[in-house]
Structures are given as C-alpha cells and as structure tokens.
Queue: 4 jobs
Job 1
Amino acid sequence: MTIEDVSRRGLFLLGCGKMGSAMLAGWLGNGMPKSSVHVIDPFPSDWLKDQDVNLNLGVPDAPAVALLAVKPQMMGDALPSVAALGGGETLILSVAAGTPISVYEATFGENTPIIRAMPNTPAAIGKGITAIVGNQAATESHLQLAKTLLSAIGQVVRLDHEDQMDAVTGVSGSGPAYVFHMIETLAAAGEAQGLAPDLAMTLAKATVAGAGALAEVADETPSQLRVNVTSPAGTTEAGLKILMNPLDGLPELMKETVKAASDRSRELRG
C-alpha cells in the first residue's frame, strides 16, 4: 500500500483534534487531495471547517487508511460506529494513548491490519517523535505507509513488540512534561539568584530549546556535548556535581520518574 493508494481510495479520520489536525495539515501541505479526506468530528474547529474536506458525511466505504484519533476514554463508544472497516481492506492506524491492539482486533478482527502509534505533543509543530507497532496482519508495506504518514508530524521509530509502548509512554509520551517542568525550575532557580522573572524564563526556554536542537544535530553524543561545556573546576562542573549526584541527583530521579509513568501506563492498559 502506498501514498498513491491513499489518495485514490481515501483517508478517513475519526476525530480531528489537535493531533489529528496537525497530521491533516501536514498531509494536505504535502499534496493529499482534499477530496480524498473524510473526517468525522462532532466539534470541528474553524480551521477544519475551512479545509474543504469531506466533513461529517459518514464513514466512507473501504478507505485505504482509517486514523483513529479520538480521546482514549471515548474509544469504547466510537469503535462500534466504524467496525465495518474491518476485514483487511483498510489499514487501521490509532494514535490513542493506552488502548492496546487487542481492543482494536476485538472490533475489526485479527485479519485486519492494525498499527498502534504513540506520538507526543511537539507533533503539533512538526517536531514530535512517534513510535509505531503493528499486529500480525500489518505487513511491511503497511508499516512503511504509516511511517510516511506520521512523518508529517516529526520523526518515527518502530518497536519490536507492543509491550515496549509502556516505556515509550514513560520516555517520549510523558517526556515533554518533564522538560517543561525543567524549564519552570531552571527559570525559578535563576530568579532565586537575582534575575527578573521574565528574563529568567527567556533564558531557560532558549537554553533548553537550543541544547535540544544541538543534541539532535550534533555528531557527538549528549555525554560528549556535556563534557565540551564543562571546564575543569569551572562553573558548569560545580553545578553538575549537584545535578549528577548518584544518590539524589537527576540520574536516579529520572529513572524513578520514567518508571512511575511506565508503570502507570501498564496499570491503565491492564
């Protein structure tokens, strides 16, 4: 299955909130015909209304891809309305957090290709990272198509098995919140040292954003980049002695943080 098949047979979105809209904007920007897109959303945004796609006209017959982008707590009520898409002709692609493939197989059948995806919130600006995993019916071409479609909102990685999705949730799914809190605390620490609040926040935001961008494009590892900034007996070394304390510093704290989020993901799935 290819992008050409999607343009010819159609792309169906069940739900088009922030995540669905970010993906749709990318697809339309990359040349997806508006006439090929079908959306059902009970509360469409003004932006969606202006896109001239097929909006709230019912479930299309055998589209190439059906994207399930409703909130996880609404999935149970939403699935029966699209159960007719099962059978194998349509690739089911879900971006709903916490809903395992088995739930979709119970609705669509095990012979239906199903791919579960976990994007994160920077997808809203095309800077997300999404992990994907498919069921037994999902072929290599299905996975490649999902990767191509999801590349509209950032990077895509493939998992070996679905159980890894809980750890992905703990790292990249919840991870933006950890970084946002780091910005908060870094700015607060600057205030405590005498900086004005607005200035401290500007410095904190730019520092985290710049360091992240550098880490993403640099040939060196993050460990080496850290060493590059750290002069012997200098200011950075003094700060890192606190942050890297093996007992109560960031390494142990981050392990506990990711474990707590991953464990909660397992609880919700179970």
Job 2
Amino acid sequence: MQTQDQQDLTGNELNAQRFRMLEDIAKELQGEVVFPISFDIALRIRKLVDDPEQSIEKISAMINLDPLISAKLINQANSVAYNPGGQEVRNLRGAITRLGLKAVRSTVMAIAMRQLLRSKDMVDFAEIANRLWNHTLQCASAAYVLARRMTRLNPDEAMLAGLLHDLGAFYMLYRATQYPELRVRPDTVRHLVIRWHDGIGVSLLGSLGVAEEIIDAVCDHDQPRLVPPAPRNLSDVIYAANLMAGDALELQRDEGDGNDFADYMPGASYLALQDEIEAHAKSMRAVFD
C-alpha cells in the first residue's frame, strides 16, 4: 500500500531520488561492492576456481557452504548434457570432476544470479526480473552453442560471458530494492536499468576482478552493428547471442530509443543453430528454475 507521500512523489523530487541511487552506486563501485550472502559465496567460489593452485577438495569445501549450490551442481552433472550414459554422480566432488572447473564457475554464477532475482525484496520488480533472467539464460545458451559450433573458443567461457553480460542490470535491480520510494515505481527503475546498466556493468565486472577478455566482450553488446558471417572473437559471439536472445532488446525498443536491431539480426548460419540453442536453454532452465 502506497502512502500519500509516495503517491505524490513526482517530478523533480523523484528525479532527485533516481539520481541519488545512481550516485550511491557510483560510490560503491569505487570501493567494496556489497551483494547478498549467496552471491558473495558465489564470487568466492569463482575466485577459487580461477586459482590454478587450489585443489578440488578446497573448492568442494567452499561450495558445501551453500547447500543449494551443491545440489544444483550435482543436478547439472546428472543432466543429459553432461551424463549421456546415465551414470549418476552422488557427491559434489564427482559433480565437479564431471563438469570441469569452467562449467562449475558458470553454474555457480547462474545459481547466484537466479537467487538474487528470486529474493523476496525483488517482488516489486518481478516482471523485469523475470524477463531479464529469461534473456540471460537464452543469451548464455546461444553463446555456448555459437562458440562450440562456429569458433574455437571455449564454450564454457562463452557461456559465462553470456551469463555476465547484463550483470549491471541485476545489480541495479538489487540496489533499487533498498529505496522504498523506487520500489513503488518499478517503471522508473526499469528506465534507469535500460539506460545505465551497460556502463555500470562494465565497472562492476572490473571491480569484481572478472577477466579482461570477458569485460571487453560484453562492454558494447547493446551497440547496433552488423554481425559478421562467422564470429571472429568472444565479442562477436556475445553480440550475436544477445541479439538472438531477444527480450532485453524488446525492453529497449519499448523505450523508443531509435535503435532498429531488426536490421542487424544474424544470418542463416547463426539461425540454423536455434534448435540446439533452445535445447541447451531448456536444459539450463531445468537446473536453475
């Protein structure tokens, strides 16, 4: 229920509050970024996985701090994509061994992002959160398949980049939940997310220590340009995957920003992979939803 003060909050005052949110985000990005505990654990796991000196035992011990992540990893390891022979693994170490560390890193990040959007505090932004999640899964799946079928890039690395390409939007929605005056106006937050998530996302990924090649690949994924006949690098993969994923672009067109992405859609060699992309996305939803 909105109070009278909240109902009357418009014009310059509302603009001031939106600016305060952006200003607070800018200050936080210059220091230590704060996420919910489940996301914090995921970031710590990612750092361990990226450290070649760490053992599977130590990584397993960290993952065991979050029972949900442990269960989802075992579920992923037993999915058709990773277990075509039907031989189930029943423990976390076996799941990590089967998936491989790069796939573990992507899976852990996807679980954390999904939990972030499912937070009870996110209920006021449920519509945009759901669209963002569906788009992210579709983009990650497209990135995986495009990298696997059309390049020599590591598909799991491409999938991670696809998962992280709109992390700025996830972060902005999380921060917006901390402003009661914005929670009652999801449309104004939606506008902020569309306009600012790219730049904030690049700064966020940098502050989290994400690899430069991933940051470079996602930094201009919403800038319209022609898609090459075949992707030449990770940036091309993420751009094409983002186009093929769809939903986030619809959010932009709703805002009337003048970008006609239909003129830049990938060609037949990309579109021929749509069935495989959809199958991969379906498999991911079975694990994470």
Job 3
Amino acid sequence: MNIQWYPGHMTKAKRAMQEDIKLIDLIIEVVDARIPFSSRNPDIDELGKNKARLILLNKSDLASETWNDAWAAWFKSQGFHVVKINSKSGVGLKQINGVVQEACKAKIERDRKRGILNRPVRAMVVGIPNVGKSTFINAFAGKACAKTGNKPGVTKGNQWIRLNKSLELLDTPGILWPRFENQEVGLRLAFIGSINDEILNKEELAAELLKFMGERYLETLKERYDVEPGDPYEMLGQIARARACLLKGNEYDYKKAANLFLDDYRNGRLGRMTLEFPPQEEKADEATER
C-alpha cells in the first residue's frame, strides 16, 4: 500500500500555526501512545524551536504499560517533558498543570525579574488528526470547548481557551505533513484511524495489521478470533469465519471482516497493544532476532 493524505486545509492550518507560534510559551503535543513516533508531525520540531515542549502520551490505556514507560523515558532523554494520559477517563490530567509550570520555569522566572507577575502560560496544543486532541482539551478544561469526533478533520480553526489564571491553550487543527517518506509510518497512521478511511483499501490494511500482530500478538488473535498463524489473508478469512462475515454461498466477506477487525483494534477491544517501539528497543529486538 502506498499511503499519502494531505488535504488542502492542512496547508492553511500550518500557516496559521506559524503565525501564532510567536504568541506562545509552550507546545503541548498530543500523540497516540500506540505509535508515539509515527503520530508525531516532524514539522512541529522545526516550528517549535526554542519553545518549551510537553508530550502527552494519550490513549495510554490502549498501549502496553511497559512500552508506555519506555517511550516516556525515551522522550525525556530527548529533552521533552512527558505525561501519560487517557483523555476519556481523565487519568493523568491532574499532573499536567505541575509539569507545565516546570517546563516553563525559566520563562516564569524571566517574567518575575521584569516585574511581570501572574501572566498565564500560553500553550499551543498540536497533534495529527484523531489522536484525541480535542477530547483532551475538553477533559482538561472540564467543559466542551473543542469539537470532537472519532475521525480526522473535526477541528477546523485555531481558538484560544482560558483554563485558569495560570494557563491559556490555543487549540489547533490536526495536521499531517505533505509526504510520508517511510510507508511504515503511513501504515501505522492508517491503523489507528488518522488517515481518511475513504482513500484506503481496508482489506489490505487489515492484512498488514494482521501480519504485524501475527508476529507480536498472536495469542490475542487466537483468543479473540480463534486464528491460527499463516498468510495474513488466510487469517482474515479465519476472522470472517469466526464472526460469520459471509456472502452468498458461504464465501468469506473479507471487506466486512476487515472493517470489524480494524474497528476492534481501534477501539481497544483486542487489549493493550503498542505498534512501535523506542529506537534503542528496536535495535535490541533486531539483535535478539539475529
């Protein structure tokens, strides 16, 4: 599969972010804990040079806790502040105010020396489509400030949200980058629903996810669908049989089975699964396999 998706409104959204970056003290970047690296827009690092940085590992309840900790440690080693959160349940949100103050300690101290007291930290909230950015903002603010939806492209424009006397948030639309040089990144984004499903071949996508899970999470597939290891399309056929996804003549309905399987994964019905691992862990895995 060759996956590329960069609708025109994202160019406009990126331009608006470039204009607003001078107004803010901190970038809060929401990523999906299942694919923390692939769900980061590389343009944000260039955009946010010289700004304090906080990464929120959202949907941490859908990823392995061991790998959540490993990713948090890796990002901290790269100079980021990190908080693991679940925006839907509110887990981790209470830690954020303290971490924001710590991340902006130098800025707050500069303000104090200039006689500027109690000016709120201004933070830009960024993230690619469908990582739960608007859900986070609403949960953090304790009210519905941002539109939410389980599909990419719900937030259309920038808006300021004053949370309290010490923090203001600038909500921004989810944006990708113009081209995925690594198609593994595109695949992972498609797995979690950050790419418009209408441009995807869902059967191919399901087969790619089954290929990965067959190597890493085979026991889960066995428990959920009574699947045995094999060719990914054979495994998809086994899911069709287990879930009675059948056409006339008892032929397997691969399309229906693919949609069911992807929906189960995206909504956490298969349990906690991390799909990519910190760079040093990847190297360790490769060395072990050799």
Job 4
Amino acid sequence: MTDASERIRALKIDREAATRAGGSGRLWLLVPATLIVLFVAWWFLLRPAAGSVLVEIDTARQPPSIGAASSVLDASGYVVARREATVSSKLTGKVEEILVEEGMRVEKDQIVARLDAATQRAQFDLANAQVVAARAALVEIEAQLRAARLERDRARDLAARQLTSVSSLDAAEANFDSLAARLETGRENVKVAESNRALAQDALDNMTIRAPFGGMVVSKNAQPGEMISPVSAGGGFTRTGICTIVDMDSLEIEVDVNEAYIQRVVAGQRVSATLDAYPDWQIPAEVIAIVPTADRQKATVRVRIGFLERDERVLRDMGAKVAFLGAEAPAQAGQQVQGVMIAQEALQRDADGDFVWRVKNNLVERRGVTVGGSRDRERVLVANGLAAGDTVVRSSEAALRAGQEVRTE
C-alpha cells in the first residue's frame, strides 16, 4: 500500500517548478524579439535611404538692396580709424588724477589726466627766483654804471683843463668800460634765467595731459597712483599710456581685394557697405584710394573706403562687407530688384548653359537659370529661373542626376 502511494506521488506534476521553467523560457524568447524590433526600426527610420546623396543646400533670397545686386565685386574687411592715438606723457611721473572714462567724448586740448608735479613745481619756483635775482643784479650794475659815467665825464673835463693827471682819466675810463661789460653780462644772465624758467614751466605743463585732438575715448590704460613713462620701464610696472582716443570722423573701411580683380576697382567708385552687426543696413560709401602695393603672401591689394554718411552705430574694428558698384548701377536705392541671390558654388554650367539643382521633397531637379551681373562673387544674382525661398544644392558628395534623392545630414 505504501509503494502504491509513492508511485502515485511520483506521477504528480510540480506546478511551481513548471512555472519557473516556463518564465525562464519566455525571457529567452524576448531577447531575439527585441533585436528584431530594433533592426526593423533602424531599417525604416535611421538607415539612410538607398541611393540618397549627402548635399549642402542654400536658399535663394531676395537681394537686400539694389547695390548688392548690381555690384561688380564683393569683398570683406574691417572698420579702421585713420586718426587715433594712445595719449601718454613726455616725462616719467606718478598719475595723480584721471579725468576720462571709456566712451567719453573729449575735445582738442581737453585735460584727460594730471601727474604728480611737486618736483616740477619746485624747479619752476627755483627758476623763477633765479630770474628775479638776475634782474636785481642787473639793476645794481646799471646804477654803478651811471655813477661811473659821471665820474668819467668829470675826469674828461678836468683833463681838458689840465687839472688832473692822465692816469686818473684812464682809471675812470676803464671803470666805466668794465661796468658796461658787466651790464651786458647781466642782461644775458637774465635771458638765461628766463629760458630756464620757461623750461621749468614746460616741464610743469607736461604734468597735465591733454587730448591731442577731439574724439572718443575707447580705452583707459592707467589708474591714479600708477607710474607712467613715455618708454617702457620698471620691469613691467610702469604704464606707457593714459588712454586711447579715436577720431570717429576718420573711420573708414579697409578691405583686401584679390589682385586678379583689382582692375575692377577705381578711386571714387561708389560702394555699398554692410556691417556684420547690422546686415540689413546698407551704407553708401566710395573708394578713397587704392594702396599702391600688393601683399605677395596673400596676393591682395588693400583698398580704402570712406563712408558718405556718418553714424554713431559705426564702430572701430567692426567687420564689414562691401559691394563695389558698376557704372550701370541704378541711381534709385529703393528700386525693386529683379531676381534672387544664391551662393556662387550653387551655380553650375555645361554645354546647355547655366543651371542649378533645385531641391523639392528631397528630390533634385535641374533648373536652367539666367545670371545677372558678375559670376565670381560670393553670392550671384539669378535674374530668371528661381524664386525667393527655393532650395538649391550648394555642394554634394557625389554627382547628381535628375530625380536623385538627397539628404542634408
């Protein structure tokens, strides 16, 4: 009976063991299922489309101005000041007072700083005292000379009447001549003393620093208590300037033009300038001069461009882009410009003429265009064939064909 019970228990199914075994089996089945889902997601979502070409695109835009559309050459440069100076002192001294700050406008000869002038003031007082002493000595000599003149005249009168000896007359004459010579020496001593006083006055005046011309203070280089010198000294602890002043009326643009295109630029040529800080602001300008030398390393020629209108928004060292206008440029700045501007790299040419690759719905199509103006600019005016807002291919990693699928990243 016991054996029969044991056999029956041996045939009983262990439900807990079956549950543990089944759970482990299902976990192993989830691993390949997860891998399959990730592969499908990559295939349909992350994998680049078959046959698509990576491209860089550009957007056709309306020209910002008639000048930008009609230029014969584009260049970039910086706003510079033809007249600027770092104001310093002629003598070494300690800064006592600074009267300017950055952004302050100063006039010509306005005081910008004062140096400690105690030593120079004492030297001036000494020189002035020497002038007073020299003049007093001159007055004394003049009095002695008058007395010597009277004595000489009496001696001459007595000698004429033979009432005195010749030696007495000679002594009177010699005394008068000696005092006359001393008088001339005294007068020269007064001049020397006055010159020394003028030098001392100049040294004293040099302790007051003045603006050499009117302009704007763009930097303040020293503080009260610091030493300042016209030359660098003191192991780096001595300043060489008080402040830097820029004449804002002398601001102009300097650009480097490739020497291969310098023949398109002439003095007096009209220019449309745009500051990087204000890309929508077209500033009328003109070519002042072409610097008559070339940079052999960069193969460029420097061109100076002057503003025809002054504005406080124009600051030194601002980046600027300029468009040199041709003779056919319209005179009316507000005239509507026909066409759009695209990057020069997007324009292509073959036996059939000029064309671009226009992108629409990630597919490219060949679009014939008509170019207006110069072709070797950074952005080219397309008169016909494109509309503002159209997307064109600027560069591609492989050759394109009509209907080719493209991607940008």
